[in-house]
Amino acid sequence: MQRNLKVAERAKVPAFEVMSILDRVAQLRAAGRNVVSLCAGEPGDGAPSAVSRRAAQIHAEGTPLTYTPALGIRELRQAIAGHYKRWYNIEVPAANVAVTTGSSGAFMLLFLAAFNAGDKVALARPGYPAYANILRTLGIDVVELAAGPESRYQPSVELLEAAWEKHGHLDGLVLASPANPTGTMVSGSELDDLAIWCRERGVRLVSDEIYHGIDYPEPGAQTRRSVSSWELDADTVVISSFSKYWGMTGWRLGWALVPDDLLPTVDALAGNVALCPPAPAQYAALAAFGEDSYREAEARVAEFSGARATLLAALPRLGWGECAPADGAFYLYADLGEKLGSFADSSQYCAALLEAQGVAIVPGVDFDAVDGGRRVRLSFAAGLGQVTEAIERIVRFQNGHSVSA
């Protein structure tokens, strides 16, 4: 007898196109091809040395790696709170810090805690696709804000007002600054305007700050960190991570600053969903807040800055159209302009570039289902050497393929 078993409709989220690209990169490398990949949104050098040494020590000493409290070990929550004093000069109670299984775990917990099925949550398009995918699997309606050059690809009060007029009451706003894929940032005054707008209308602001620390001030400007939403309003939700600034993507460790009203719910959910974040990563991550680790991370940001400068200087040679301002993170998001040629879309362009020249970049459709067909994202986290080589190969490719595909 044939069983008629179903797959939940809410679970049918689109796969990331970048995953098929990475599979093809692996195939080409296995066949002996030299491939330059500017796909991955992660630093290539791994965790700070002190973190790796501490992890090795933990295992060598036979430290019992049992369950920890659901919201993380007390020492790590205190260290994260101290980080906010160091960077933002704000007092964050350690009790409001929830350590999570990556920032992805934080998003799942906080979306579950803050929103009901049928609620409306706004976010910018283009944007990181997992925001919308997680929200939709939870039955939450996603309201996309078409954020273009006029708003520097970020949400604005004007866009929110228009969405409110069209869709009715909004329950949440997801903001990312610096953002993936654009690298754009909101200023302190812009964030303040958004926070005030949300507070006055009872809209929960969720601020993705995982790229904080990776920014590029203009020459001569006073260097300062990105602005955290908790500098302005402790009723907002902050999501952050050890993945980007500290280069610890595979350690699967993130955190959230949780407002008082959500704390009991998040605590209960965390114990049910994941029991606890990874114990070895938690103990080792304490070393991320040492002076040596901060120095290593800052040196890495300086390397990103050099690769970014090289890529921006090469834009006239690449001949692409409008590019998002790469304020922070390690991405360039660009319209291919006339260089799209007769390729049907950026997916076809990227596939041809990979086969012809061995350069892997990401088509914009992963981040924008409406307008991403003309856009691509490059990650310069791969480093100066890889970026320089990729530029030369892309120019060669376009010289032969920009008119006829």
Detail the topology: elements first, then pairings.
Elements: H1 17-30, E1 36-37, H2 49-60, H3 74-88, E2 97-100, H4 102-114, E3 120-125, H5 129-137, E4 141-146, H6 157-167, E5 172-176, H7 188-201, E6 204-208, E7 237-241, E8 254-257, H8 263-273, H9 279-285, H10 291-313, H11 315-318, E9 331-335, H12 346-357, E10 359-360, E11 362-363, E12 375-379, H13 384-401
CATH superfamily of the largest domain: Type I PLP-dependent aspartate aminotransferase-like (Major domain)
Q: How many domains would you count in the coordinates? A: 2
How many DSSP E strands?
12
Q: CATH first level of the largest domain: which class?
A: Alpha Beta
Strand order in space, largest sheet: 2-8-7-6-5-3-4
CATH architecture term of the largest domain:
3-Layer(aba) Sandwich
The CATH topology label of the largest domain is: Aspartate Aminotransferase, domain 2
- Look at the structure and give the mean pLDDT: 94
Task: Using the CA coordinates, give the radius of gyration.
Answer: 21 Å
Write up this protein.
- The structure is a single chain.
- The protein is α/β, with parallel strands linked by helices.
- The protein has two domains: 142 residues, Aspartate Aminotransferase, domain 1; 227 residues, Aspartate Aminotransferase, domain 2.
- Helices cover 40% and strands 13% of the residues.
- The strands form three sheets. A seven-stranded mixed sheet has the order 2-8-7-6-5-3-4, sandwiched between helices. It has a three-stranded antiparallel sheet with strand order 9-12-11.
- Strand 5, helix 7 and strand 6 form a beta-alpha-beta unit.
- The chain starts with 16 loop residues before the first helix and ends with a helix.
